[in-house]
Amino acid sequence: MRWISFVLAGCWLLAIPAPTPEEKRISIYSPAADYSLSVTEREGKDYVGLLEILEPLGGVTAKIEGQKWQLRFNDSDAQFTPDSNKARIRGRDVDLTGRFLLENNRGLVPVDSLVTLLPNFLGIPVVFHTTARRLFISEAGTTYKTELKKTTPPKLVLNFSSPVNPTIGTEPGKLTMIFLRDPLVPSGPETVNFNDKAISSATFKENNGAVEVTVNGPVPLLASFSNDGRTITIAPAPSPASSITPAPLAAPPTATPPAPVAGTAPSAPPSPMPAATPRYFAVVDASHGGDERGAALSDKLAEKDVSLAFAQHIGQELGSRGIAALMLRDSDSTLTVDQRASNANSAHPAIYISVHATSEGIGVRVYTALLPSARENRGPFVAWDAAQAPFLSASQTAALRVAAELRKTIAVRILAAPLRPLNNVTSAAIAIEVAPQTGDLADLTSSNYQQLVASSIVTALAAVRDQLESSR
């Protein structure tokens, strides 16, 4: 699956997954670019590619000449010798905190040497948060203030000095915002207590090239963006039980035809009504297909085949419970994301379910849409990229219920992502991304696992069927 970052304005959200905790990273913040790179461990020390560090900051080239690794950054020349703990930059010797390593023509330097190396290239000082591996180049950082508003329900408002775009995840008891490419710095105590029953505290922590701001509370929490990404508001998630399902409409009284008038021919019987268009509760969409293979789960296993297998199980499970469903793709066919959205919208379902597969992680991830900044509707014409907006609350109700059901037997996370065509769908819409249950790739082709996932999803959707029907 491919992700693109957007800022969501004025809509509830969770968020896209952050890097796995096992992957060491370093983040660099500068006026030229904010970026994050992988860290390699060698000889008990953290190393990073020097060329990759410098590339976003200016023109850089590197080559091997004899026993030297020659690097040129803008108008600065540098020479590094493999296995040496000294470098020569602009004709001056610079000490490294460990040996310079050359691997496949890639020059690696100790991460904690950057605070010495970079000023020699850039001509300006840098600030390095060593433990968290966060490096600031002429960047004062983004600060924020918190304010708990005692409304009903309460709201925690975080106002930032610059726009931010964190990834956000929820789990029982907390909501975590991970700022990977935002130069966030603390502007107060690391932990703030609010003395509120729903939102108890917020903590700031730097770790692994990122900042984690965790908001704690005994109830599920959701976040929304506003003010062009400068404000994040956190509030208790709406309870599915609080949704009001309208009472069914009474059947209209049957009209009694008037008696024929004496001496006149009886009128012709009314023409039969045209057959009603099938009314589907769910549209099930197996991702990728045809020319689009999706992720390569293994040398022989493509995402398009696995997503189709899971989607077929979901469709069969819906059918076995008497719930009408439409399969957008029931074979190895190619559909664009716009075709998927158009076909789904034409069916007017109560819910759209997109099915994906991955070899990374374990269990199931349940996604709702991460919408772009608010788009203006023009009369009856709805902005295509924000068509999901009126249905996002229903989507989150479905996602919460599906995750609760899956969690009984399978590891699960609720997230949000700019994953098309979710934002184009005019009904409740969720995406399901299935990873192996135990970490073994064979799980993805196991009929038992496919049926377990499908049964859990359909059980959850059946439980909120009335609510989803009322949101059409």
Give a short overview.
By secondary structure, the chain is of the alpha+beta class. 17% of the residues lie in helices and 31% in strands. The protein has 3 domains: 12-20 and 141-239, Immunoglobulin-like (Sandwich), CATH 2.60.40.3470; 40-132, 2-Layer Sandwich (Copper Amine Oxidase, Chain A, domain 1); 282-470, 3-Layer(aba) Sandwich (Aminopeptidase).
- Count of helical stretches: 7
Distance between the terminal alpha carbons, to the nearest Å? 28 Å
The CATH architecture term of the largest domain is 3-Layer(aba) Sandwich
What level of helicity do the residues show?
Answer: 10-25%
**Uncertain regions spanning at least 5 consecutive residues:** 1-21, 240-277
Radius of gyration from CA coordinates: 28 Å
Profile the largest sheet: 6 strands, mixed
Structural class: alpha+beta
User: Which outline best applies?
Assistant: globular
CATH topology-level fold name of the largest domain: Aminopeptidase
Q: Taking strands numbered 1, 2, ... along the chain, how are they ordered across the largest sheet?
A: 25-24-26-29-27-28
Beta-strand percent range:
25-35%
Count of domain modules: 3
- The total count of strands amounts to 29
CATH superfamily (homologous) name of the largest domain: Zn-dependent exopeptidases
